[in-house]
Amino acid sequence: MSASARHLGWLSVAFVLSCAAHAQSVPSAVPADSASAPGRVQAPVAAAPASAASAPEEIVNSDLDAPLFYQLLVGELELQNGQPGTAFQVLLDAARRSSDEELFRRVVGIALQGRAGDQALVAARAWRDSVPTSQEAHRTLVQLLALLNRPAEVAAPLRALLAMNTPEARGQLLASIPPLFQRSPEPKRVMEALEPLLRETAAKPETRFISLMVMARLAQTAGNAENALINVRAAAKDFPDRDEPLLLALELLPQRPEAEALITAELQAHPDKQALRLAYGRALARAQRPADAAREFRILTQESPDNPGPWLALGSLELDLQHADAAESALQRYMKLLNQQSSLQSRADPRAEPTEREARQQGLLLLAQTAEMRGDLKTAEARLSEIDAAPGNLDIAFRRASLLARQGKLDQARQLLQALPAEREQDQRAKVLAESQLLREHRQWQTAYDLLGQAIARNGEDTDLLYEQSMMAEKLGRMKEMEALLQKVIQLKPQHYHAYNALGYALADRNERLEEARDLISKALTFAPGEPFIVDSMGWVEFRLGRLGEAERLLRQAYGSRPDPEIAAHLGEVLWAGGQQDEARRIFADAAKRDPRNEALQNVMQRLQVRP
Hints:
- Helix content is about 70%, strand content about 0%.
- By secondary structure, the protein is an all-alpha fold.
- It is elongated, with a radius of gyration of 35 Å.
- About 40% of the residues are buried.
- Residues about 1-50 have low confidence and may be disordered.
């Protein structure tokens, strides 16, 4: 043993002594003449009896014999001397000999501290084998197998652990499975390994619900939305009073649009489920379906008129739908309720002030945008001036820049954005995207194209910058360049569904390579089923292919979810071609009221000689 091993630290000594105490006994007494014999441990000297009548305490032999004590001491000394591998082997042997759970726990901790996952697994298995009734041993083994991404070996210890527990505890154990494997690089393997066990537990009434939900969650993580929806439907059917299956169905909505039927049926049967309706409205907003989302939030504002949250969401959605008056009304109601609540909360808890300030800023920013939409630039600027935000806030700066540009001060607007601080690369990138958006809104396509090109030269192959430049290339009539840029985006980011959609739509709009266009848009829909602009693109390509009925169905679906002027232009043209000119005129007129400057709408109305 090295010289430094003689200096035993307090922590190591404490651990060794705790192991001795854990035996709940004392070593056997030894003769006085052999107290110093090697390999022997002398019992502590008992205190003198209080009186002659006091009976001597019974001496109980300890399981901690001299060799075991020596192993513990050597193991701790080796660990302190920077030899965790040797310490692990010595202490693991001691743990096996003693079957002491505290010692096994110590050995597993040593391995984990040294980032030796395989050694920790060896120790956990030895622990399980030595103390087969220990729940902690089985639980530690399951956790380590998950950590080491060995799902195929998890079922056996998990099954044993479940058998040791009550039905309530079994449910908690099953519920812990998805978080345990959430970082697994191979979620499909996790699903395949655990599904047989979960099918077993799903067959038992006490664990059926949680088993179905865990299978659904694991399938979702593995990218198998169809399997996930099957389990969600089973849980919703067997447990109609539980909302968890419906909330998970909302998460599946982007991949499986048919999941929406579960939600709508539940809300029709139980319209008072506000939490579910709120989650549904948010999911619709995320799916870029503002008209459908606004419908749900209107109901929420009617049911809870004193709750400011739904009013803010409704105002934002009405703004997205270009309903300036409705947005103004909802946002004003939000601000009034916010002021009332802020007064009460600030008196109760001064720490709430930062959150209140952020909520107020959000409302004022949307109100400023609403005033700008109506053309009331003075009111918009006044509302922006009320916002108490940190200098350099990009959202506020962009709105101010937009107001300047609408007053013919585009150069000044650009300077405002360019002057914003950008300490990080992502801040500089955000500034470039904001400036290019401003230029695009004012039809400065070449300038925007050049700006994006400079940013790409600095930042390399950034998919967002490349995508935006492709849109400017299209505006400039450089179709081959646009296609090359979009293909580059797809190559760099195969899941960039906007690129598939943009390329497919551009081909359809030029009436070229229509089958290829249809395939590209279909690919986009696999990533975002039901997204209105992509459905609109598919409707447009069907129109180009001469399938008027399917084109009308798709475009009505897209327009119903998002009554955007460009979608209105496509739907109106399809209706016009199908002999439904009166309805087409109504759609054109409604869209023109909301956005009379829309280029696509103007073009189709001029071509069809329809007056606004």
